[in-house]
Amino acid sequence: MTPFPDLPGFLYWPGRLEVAAQAAMLAEVEAATAEAPPYRPVTPGGRPFSVRMTNMGPLGWMSDRAGYRYQPTHPETGRPWPPIPASLLSLWAELTGAPPPDACLVNLYDADARMGLHQDRDEADLTQPVVSVSLGDTAVFRIGPADGGRTRTLKLASGDVCALTGPARLARHGIDRILGGSSSLIPGGGRINLTLRRAG
Ligand code: MD3
Ligand code: FE
Q: Full-prediction pTM beyond 0.90?
């Protein structure tokens, strides 16, 4: 569905993953985080993100004092990122029909984490879609047009999937807050967001 008719290209599938599929995906992410531990990036200005991050796939997004970029290795271990699970590659293919993603950013939120309004523009081809999968606690997601019109919010719950295609690809977006305790999927609580992209 298209929740906001004035943001065409923002596609949303509430409850796209049933609970068993969410649990299976969480287990795959946990296996990946054992290999590529979540870390807390800093902005180019040196401010720590409240969100912790890691990646799966040939390329991973990162931020440090040198800037934002995609790179093939974990900044702390120096090892390649673990592969993107097949379940996520199939989901991307089914929803987008686009050539396969080469990057999956894993954002880990505790109840106090946030993500400020931003655009995703570090990918080589900004005509390629982004697909996002939410697991765990519900987030208050904010989105508005690329050129600074009004923003509005949508709750993203565990199992919800969205795709940012065409004119929505450069939308401004962020996470206002996490509704702590809203899901029991992740032991100890929290939210994990997976974003699949073509970075290179
Ligand atoms: C709209 N992640 O990783 S997911 C990000 O919930 C990011 O962790 C948020 O913003 C999160 O960059 C939001 C939904 C999303 C992802 C990518 C987008 C919305 C987007 C790219 C373009 C426009
Ligand atoms: Fe983003």
A: yes
